[in-house]
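Hey,
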Amino acid sequence: MGATDGRYLKLADFKMYAINGATVLNTADDLVLTSSILRAEAEIDGTTKTAFDEQTHTLVRPMTAFVDYHGWLHLFSRERAPVTAVAAIQTRDLLQDKGWVTTTWDTDDLILPVAMDPPRPDSWHVMVLPSNNVPTRATTEMLVRWTYTGGYATIPPSLQALTMRLAWWVYKLREAPLAKIVTAELGLMQIPLSIPPDIRADLRHWSPMYS
């Protein structure tokens, strides 16, 4: 693996934070810094169970899908947030299975979440009023697959800052590979190997809320 930017944090920005503004290329620590960024991003995605860089997912199943009593189809994304576009939806009614049916809708009948920093609790939630009148169905009574775009085209500052703090913690762990370090001033110090509590608390704002 060579030195590279992460999805949420650029190597040059991390170097400004971590090693006192040293932004020259090919520094001795570049590979370690890159590894710290990538591990921090993996921890963020694993903790929140989603990701936030912009991607398009093709014909994937949503985390949850149902049709309410007013005929609105509710979809909750699994892979990315916030959802910014929907290109295609297919439904399969399990109560009267006629195979996969392509859903159509008018422009005004697609409600997308508002992209905010940090994301709102409904950033994974999309509402669609199908033109083909899909009957009311609970989650267990239908299957859905959809093509959608989610994530931020530009990573918001708060997520960059979270990644930076977590990557710095990962980077500093190399000084305490056994989770313990001895200093002349403080003696034996125990280093936590899980995400620091303050960062974990901030990540709650980035976790999805499914209905």
